Amino acid sequence: MKAAVARALTPSDTRSKGILFALGGALLISSDPIFVRLSGTGGFNTAFLFGLFTAISMSTLIQFTDQRGLIGTLKESGWPVFFSGLCMLGSATTFVLSIKSTSVSNTFFIMSSAPALSAVFSWIFLGEATKKSTWLAIAAVIGGIAIVVSGSLETGRTYGDVLAMVAVTCVALNHTLLRKYKTVSRMATVGTGGFLLAVAMFFLAEPSTFGLSTWLIMGVMGLISAPMGRVLGQSSTRYITAPEVGVIMLAQAVFAPLWAFGVFGEVPVSTTVIGGAVILTTILVYILSTRTQTQ
Questions:
Q1: pLDDT score recorded for residue 208
Q2: Do 48 and 205 form a contact (C-beta atoms < 8 A)?
Q3: Residue 49 and residue 51: Cα distance in Å, rounded?
Q4: Residues 73, 188: contact at Cβ < 8 Å?
Q5: What was the pLDDT predicted at 47?
Q6: pLDDT surpasses 50 at 27
Q7: Is the pLDDT of residue 155 over 70?
Q8: Please, are residues 195 and 51 in contact by the beta-carbon 8 Å criterion?
């Protein structure tokens, strides 16, 4: 069994690479709520800092790692990079505000519909059929997440839940777009999204009220974890389908409570442990069962 798992997770082919990228993206993105909670400031302020630092980090990386340079990369990427940036603007803004307006569990439960939406969008816009095994995995993972949040769903937070629905729609559209345009720079799309987010939130944020801790905490999130998590997640669409990316990245619903336990000492309740086991088992079985399939 260990040998099979090792073979499935060895980046010896494009499919394995896509799976590893998606898992890495899920791990990093799952830490977002921790930074948002630690920031000690409002949703608009948090979104502004996230966008600002993301734009800075991605622009710098492109300039020094891509021989085309920042301007050349943006020109060559064309309109898809701007549309992807708009999708990220929508998803990042509504995700942060959702975290501020409802429980983390509620937000991640709603975000779990991403694979299903990606499958629908891929069928509509790309004519890409979704395999039966992917649909089964989607259903099983959503069931696991339902178990995770069954004991903590709260009422009276409709606004935050609606924001999460907008966020997941933007995520699914972005995955579908980038599945079609595989050569578009993922750092450029994330950087463009960060820039648009910073510009949009600038008029609503209050930078003069930020303390040093807020700048430092959001700096770590915006410069490192959040943009790199999104770059990895978006890069995985080059190697596996959008619905498959969505299935694997649902692992963030398991990683998020682990981050909360490690940082805040929040002990997961039994439903979280059971549901998390269902999610991880489903993803593992899905990876092993599809490892020999071609894209």
A1: 81
A2: yes
A3: 5
A4: yes
A5: 86
A6: yes
A7: no
A8: yes
Q: Which sequence spans correspond to the domains of the chain? A: 16-290
pLDDT for 60 beyond 60: yes
Terminal Cα distance for the chain, rounded: 24
| 30: three-class secondary structure by DSSP | coil
Measured distance CA(249)–CA(274) in Å, rounded? 19
DSSP state of 224: I
Amino acid at 215: W
275/154 Cα distance (integer angstroms): 18
CA 231 – CA 193 distance, rounded (Å): 11
How far apart are alpha carbons 175 and 262 in whole angstroms? 30
Are the C-beta atoms of 16 and 9 separated by less than 8 Å?
yes
Q: Which of the 8 DSSP states describes residue 294?
A: -
Average pLDDT along the chain: 81
Neighbours of 39 (CB within 10 A): 23
